[in-house]
């Protein structure tokens, strides 16, 4: 890592289709000066989430797009190395939208930042105790509303959000079936996370396997992927099923949105509900949820997996791991 | 009408794609004998609903499929001409699933039947005070939950259910935009039903016109059609929008379900909810709803339109009017 300069990835063009390094400039700049009320952060870990693909698009959404020429926005954790902010001192561990760079100015714009809770491992705020875990928590508990004995189906079940959804559902007394790619991830689901069954979408007929592993139908489907897997889940709904739409990674790099599920009208026959959400709407309840998640991880009720790559120069390649299905658990990059 | 025989339409084969007369046998049988606890009904009006297309398919649903060789199931109203049932007397006006035929046995199987309320025009139980109006009532009020000032978009707005949805939404203080086919239906929506705008899906760019007529987005979309119109509505959702899935007539005669909406992921960005329902689940509340609907029609708050064709021999052709978009209001056949 350079000690004198700040290496950054700046968005240089809006991706059409799959993201590539050609959409970014990798630049080296002086470490920024901080003003009154600001602080300097040295990033230690960058967080990668599928939703960041949406931030690269020039369209209105729940958060403004990243501007051309701006450092790519990302959640990170780091350490305060200088401060002119009353609430942050040198040495504080902080989390915030500090972006794909080695150093960032905190206390400015979207990069206000907050401290990492005392005693919490520094990467947790990016994963199980951050947006990822909170998305799992509110999506499953508030929208899905699992009841003991119900069958919960989760796609992207070896991913950051899916793995937490699956394990919370087990804690709530549900039968849980996970969908993931490849035998290693499927073994993780059943052997390590204790799920009742796993479906390998790369090797198996997903719709047939859902029917087989969920013989009474799916009460809650937590969808992280969209596309044909969503369609297969819709074909297997139980009455009054809840479909929680968390994201549609399968379509994020398509030039136009792919066709939706053919089995949508099963929502009528089964009186089903499909609902989307954005976790930032639950911000007021983040403290209670974070505390409960941290307790579950600390007590061993939930296993928190991280996939840690290294080196700021690998940021784009690390991001692409999400779309190639290469990550197991939360995708991070250590600087 | 034959006085001595009973002309019937019996399902002879399961339609693949669009229904045609070739899927039925038009037969003439003796008027049936009734047993103890049964009564004989002379059908006066047959009711036609898009959902009947689903009953012709050999698949599990909320009601068993019509068997090959059986009289086509349909809601009807009629008059009791013989009775060995303690609750029904000759001359009583009745409604029930008495099918595409001139005479039916009541008090048997799915054809239990009930009396038409005293003083109610005989066709109302098939339309605004029957399944059609009840579907509009519960779908809009229970799933859509309209608030004054919200924007409600309704497809099939000149149809039996859509026209009632649109008018109830106006009663509840909403801005209402209707989608229908052709200038005559669109004029009906704005001039007779008092809607705020109408969109002619046969002549206009539906998505652009929704954006234009619903500048703050769509709070409630009541979907009677599915397909590209559902997609166009999804592209124009307001935050926390509710999409009420009533049916998908555009796909009912397709050999396989058509692809779903590309804009489904807007449910995530807008935190929207899409929900299907089957009106029979609300049976316990039918009396209150029917009473309120009857009051609205009687007081002139809701206009009830009927499209009345004639002659049992025209049953299949009358059914097809629904899929050709030819009906305005409730499609009936007078015998």
What's the quick description here?
With 335 residues, the first copy, chain A, is α/β, with parallel strands linked by helices. Chain A has helices at residues 52-55, 131-144, 160-171, 183-192, 206-213, 227-234, 266-269, 286-298, 315-323, and strands spanning 5-11, 24-30, 39-48, 76-83, 93-96, 103-106, 114-115, 151-154, 175-180, 197-200, 218-223, 237-245, 273-276, 306-310, 330-334.
CATH class group of the largest domain in chain A:
Alpha Beta
Number of domains of chain A: 2
Which pair of chains has the greatest number of interface residues, and how are they split between the two chains? Answer: A-B, 33 and 33 residues
CATH architecture of the largest domain in chain A: Alpha-Beta Complex
- CATH superfamily of the largest domain in chain A, by name, is Medium-chain alcohol dehydrogenases, catalytic domain
How far apart the termini of chain A lie comes to 7 Å
Residue share in helix of chain A? 10-25%
Kindly describe this structure:
The structure is a homodimer. Chain A is α/β, with parallel strands linked by helices and about 325 residues long. Chain A has 2 domains: about 5-125 and about 305-335, Alpha-Beta Complex (Quinone Oxidoreductase, Chain A, domain 1), CATH 3.90.180.10; about 130-280, NAD(P)-binding Rossmann-like Domain (Rossmann fold, 3-Layer(aba) Sandwich), CATH 3.40.50.720. Helices cover about 25% and strands about 25% of the residues of chain A. Chain A is built from 9 helices and 15 strands. The first copy, chain A, has helices spanning about 50-55, 130-145, 160-170, 185-190, 205-215, 225-235, 265-270, 285-300, 315-325; strands at about 5-10, 25-30, 40-50, 75-85, 95, 105, 115, 150-155, 175-180, 195-200, 220-225, 235-245, 275, 305-310, 330-335. In chain A, the strands form 3 sheets. In chain A, strands 3, 4, 5, 6, 7, 14 and 15 form a 7-stranded mixed sheet that branches. A 6-stranded parallel sheet of chain A has the order 10-9-8-11-12-13, with helices on both faces. A two-stranded antiparallel sheet of chain A has the order 1-2. In chain A, helix 2 packs across helix 3 (about 160-170), helix 2 (about 130-145) crosses helix 8 (about 285-300) and helix 5 (about 205-215) runs parallel beside helix 6. The radius of gyration of chain A is 20 Å and the shape is globular. In chain A, about 50% of the residues are buried. The interface of A and B includes residues 258, 267, 268 and 273 of A. Strand 13 of chain A pairs antiparallel with strand 13 (about 275) of chain B, so a sheet runs across the interface.
């Amino acid at each position: 890592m350079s000690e004198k300069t700040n290496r950054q990835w700046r968005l240089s063009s809006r991706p059409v289709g799959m993201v590539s390094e050609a959409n970014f400039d990798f630049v080296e700049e002086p470490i920024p000066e901080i003003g009154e009320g600001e602080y300097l952060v040295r990033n230690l870990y960058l967080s990668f989430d599928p939703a960041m693909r949406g931030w690269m698009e020039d369209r209105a959404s729940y958060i403004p797009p990243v501007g051309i020429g701006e450092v790519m926005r990302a959640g990170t954790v780091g350490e305060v190395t200088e401060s002119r902010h009353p609430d942050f001192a040198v040495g504080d561990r902080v989390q915030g939208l500090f972006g794909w760079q080695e150093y960032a100015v905190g206390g400015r714009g979207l990069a206000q930042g907050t401290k990492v809770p005392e005693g919490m491992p520094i990467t947790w705020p990016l994963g199980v105790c951050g947006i990822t875990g909170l998305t799992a928590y509110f999506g499953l508990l508030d929208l899905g509303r699992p009841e003991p004995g119900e069958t919960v189906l989760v796609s992207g079940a070896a991913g950051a959000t899916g793995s937490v959804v699956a394990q919370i559902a087990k804690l709530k007394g549900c039968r849980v079936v996970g969908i993931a790619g490849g035998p290693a991830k499927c073994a993780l689901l059943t052997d390590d996370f204790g799920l009742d069954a796993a479906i390998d979408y790369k090797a198996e007929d997903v719709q047939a396997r859902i029917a087989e592993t969920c013989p009474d139908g799916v009460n809650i489907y937590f969808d992280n992927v969209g596309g044909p897997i969503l369609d297969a889940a819709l074909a297997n709904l139980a009455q009054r099923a809840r479909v929680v739409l968390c994201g549609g990674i399968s379509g994020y790099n398509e030039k136009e949105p792919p066709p939706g599920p053919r089995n949508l009208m099963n929502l009528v026959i089964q009186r089903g509900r499909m609902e989307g959400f954005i976790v930032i709407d639950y911000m007021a309840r983040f403290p209670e949820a974070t505390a409960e998640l941290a307790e579950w991880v600390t007590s061993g009720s939930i296993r928190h997996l991280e996939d840690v790559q290294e080196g700021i120069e690998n940021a784009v390649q690390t991001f692409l791991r999400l779309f190639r299905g290469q990550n197991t658990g939360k995708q991070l990059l250590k600087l």
